[in-house]
Amino acid sequence: MSSSAALQLPWRATPPRFRLVLVLTAALWLITLALALGPLGVDSPPVNEVLSAPGFWIVVALVLLADCYPWLPSMRDVRGELRFVWSAPLSLGAIVAFGAPAVLLPAVSGLLTSLARGTAPWWRSSINAMCFGLIGSISLLLVELAREWTTPQPTADPLHVTVVGLLVAVVALGVNGSVLAVASATLGRSTVAASWRQTRRALRIWGISLVAVPLVATLAVAAPWAGLPVVIVIAALNQLSRTMLRSTAAARTDPLTRLANRVTLTRRLATRISAVDVSGSGSGGTRVYLLLIDLDGFKSVNDTHGHLLGDAVLRRVADRLRSAVPAGDLVARYGGDEFAVVPGPGSTASIAVETAERIQRALAEPLRLGGQTITVGASIGLAATADPRTDVLELVEMADRDLYRVKKSVALVERRLPVVDDEPEGGPFAPVWSTAAQGAITAPATGWPGVHWSITAASPDPSTLRVTP
């Protein structure tokens, strides 16, 4: 199971070790919160004083604005792609400035951030809330320790505010990255180190915004009303993010089908191939698969019904492809009536074949468009590589050759692909059985070190298409 697919699991289907990580995170949050509010919280400003300060409520309002802005209708198409957490420096700055009364603000912010971006299922929002809450309680511990050990008080001295604020930012990055890395490792097949490397790349952009923590704390105490123009900044940054995300999506997406285009396909394949781990212990997987799909009889649709109906067929085919593949797979339009699917990390030979079977069953259903019933089949070429030095175009050419052979109804296709997934008896390089294009079983194939298989819509029973010893 890939990490992307695991993130869509219901709570009961998550691994026990993942649930244990969440329980331990919640326990650690409560412990640090009790310490910050108990023995070390005596030096925080009085609650009544904080609640009467305009700077506190201005920061709270800015946090809510930053987290809820993606709910605007104009942000609907990009809210799931937003990566900046504009409320993070605001909520942490409030802790530096006001201490204990602001300690729950990061947890509320984490929950709202996840909900506003449409994160599902519910436990993913819980991860955000607990992770941000833990960051808030640890940050409060640092602030309270600074109040005890330094004179003058941190909020009264700009240098102390800067030092404490930057320390809080560093701790926030470390805690967030560690929790997410451990949680990701318990969901997928990656190690903690590999998950941390992926999380660390995502935190670089987020970390830039945390540099503003000392500035937020200083303004909240010394010049609270100066924070109101931040409303304009939040709105402008979100609109800028929306424009950039839309431009990026347009450059990576096929305008007709809204699938990934060829540029995105080749870039993703290059990344996946370079991440192949020949030792089998990393998150990149031991093999990359590519399914190349060509529609059968599509030219006659254009010739008989016209290109407008042909475009509608392509859009409907794209919808069926999205529904037929797992959430972590990449679906792309390669060009014309050719499509491609790249199974997600951790996929095996059997998973790739099962995906191809689902695609064939989905595309075999007649399409009803414009009062017409259109039937298009699909031929699928399949290629794989376990070598991180493989060129993307070489892998595409392998799939294309297999697709050409399928089109020509070649009964058996031999390919030098090491059989390392679903290893048959006799070792990783033992020959395997193959299926003919018409569904007949052939003899064991010869050649080094294994064989490749072909799948075609001409097969009377796609469920029989299996790779078995």
TrEMBL record:
Pfam families: GGDEF. The keyword Membrane applies. NCBIfam families: GGDEF. This is GGDEF domain-containing protein. Residues 286-422 form the GGDEF domain. The keyword Transmembrane applies. SUPFAM superfamilies: Nucleotide cyclase. Keywords: Membrane, Transmembrane, Transmembrane helix. InterPro entries: DGC-Regulatory_Protein, GGDEF_dom, Nucleotide_cyclase, Rev_trsase/Diguanyl_cyclase. The chain crosses the membrane at residues 84-107, 127-146, 158-185, 205-237.
